[in-house]
Amino acid sequence: MTIALVAGATRGAGRGIAAELGAIGATVYVTGRTTREQRSEYNRAETIEETADLVTKAGGRGIPVQVDHLERDQVKELVARIDREQGRLDVLVNNIWGGENLFSWDKPLWEHDLDAGMRMLRLAIDTHIITSHFALPLLLKNEGGLVVEMTDGTADYNATNYRLSFFYDLVKTSVIRMAFAQSKELGPRGATAVALTPGWLRSEMMLEAFSVTEATWRDALEAQPHFAISESPAYVGRAVAALVHDPDRAKWNGLSLSSGGLAQVYGFTDVDGSRPDAWRYMVEVQDPGKSADTTGYR
After folding, report:
1. Is the pLDDT of residue 16 over 90?
2. At what angle do helices 127-139 and 72-86 cross, to 10 degrees?
3. Quick one: DSSP state of residue 221?
4. Which secondary structure element, helix H or strand E, spans residue 279, and what is its range?
5. 8 A C-beta contact, residue 198 and residue 20
6. Residue 6 DSSP label
7. pLDDT of the residue at 105
8. What is the CATH number of the domain that holds 16?
């Protein structure tokens, strides 16, 4: 049985990844700050217990643990608990983010709220470093471990496109580099580290922004036609599951991957049976200003 830690699994990609790991029978420790008794600064309704229930319902075993990944002692105890209860860790997904409400798309660095920007860097970069610092020794106890650093954008896309905010741009490119750096340390020790991005994710917050649900998401196309390329959180979850199942996953070590790109290799689909390739679509259709048309892209 696969033992996984999805750090930052309260909602969005983390929840989708945790559930899809459950679907392949994994035991998944799902962490976050929001529980049924206490909410994080997001003040949203999604909880880690709900995510754990989805893991168990899918066929795995979900274990919710409230953790603030900026608090070193909490992360250290989390890893110690996994060691006590399981004796190993096979998969670490660093998905902690927490920055949606902390950056402004339209303000340059000198006008941006500095405290909010620095808080975002701590939430989205420091948390990944702290979690890997404590979790990697356990992951390395057995050969074949996998680390997935979740980000937004591929290395190629982010290298040539400004991600619209100094702080957001810095975070998302830094996480890709963290995966590369870890790959250099883990590869010779029998483990694999990759960076992974979903496409245009239909997270709870994105659906709410368009006033739609997962069942009615196409109603948003009138307001934003390019939303047609969007994908459910399950899609990137299936990308992680495919990596876990691949005994030859070391071939990806250090690389920047996308859900759409991996779907072309492994053959999995989104919940509607399609294979959206959002980053190719953005380069070839959306960014050049062409009319929305997903033909050949999903």
Report:
1. yes
2. 20
3. G
4. helix 278-281
5. no
6. E
7. 86
8. 3.40.50.720
What mean pLDDT value characterizes the chain?
Answer: 96
**What DSSP element (H or E) covers 193?**
strand 192-197
| Residue 212 falls inside a structural domain | no
Tell me if 270 sits within 8 A of 235, measured CB to CB: yes
Q: What is the pLDDT of residues 136-187, one digit of tens each?
A: 999 999 999 999 999 999 999 999 999 989 999 999 999 999 999 999 999 9
Tokens found for residue 94: 């660093």
Task: Measure Cα distances from 191 to 65, 88, 148, 158, 205 in Å.
Answer: 25, 13, 11, 26, 34
Tokens of 275: 């294979």
**Alpha carbons within 13 A on the beta-carbon side of 61:** 7
- Whether 31 maps to a domain, the answer reads yes
Which of 205, 2, 180 shows the shortest CA–CA distance to 92? 2
- pLDDT at residue 247, rounded to an integer: 96
Question: How many domains, in total, are found in the chain?
Answer: 1
- Three-state SS for 78? helix
Residue 264's SS3 state is helix
CB 208 within 8 A of CB 12: no
Read off the pLDDT of residues 211-256 as tens digits, 9 standing for 90 and up.
Answer: 999 999 999 999 999 999 999 999 999 999 999 999 999 999 999 9
> What are the residues whose beta carbons fall under 8 Å from the beta carbon of 90, sequence distance 6 or more?
2, 3, 4, 139, 142, 144, 145, 146, 244
Nearest to 27 by CA among 12, 5, 47: 5
Residue-number span of the structural domain to which 43 is assigned: 3-201+233-276
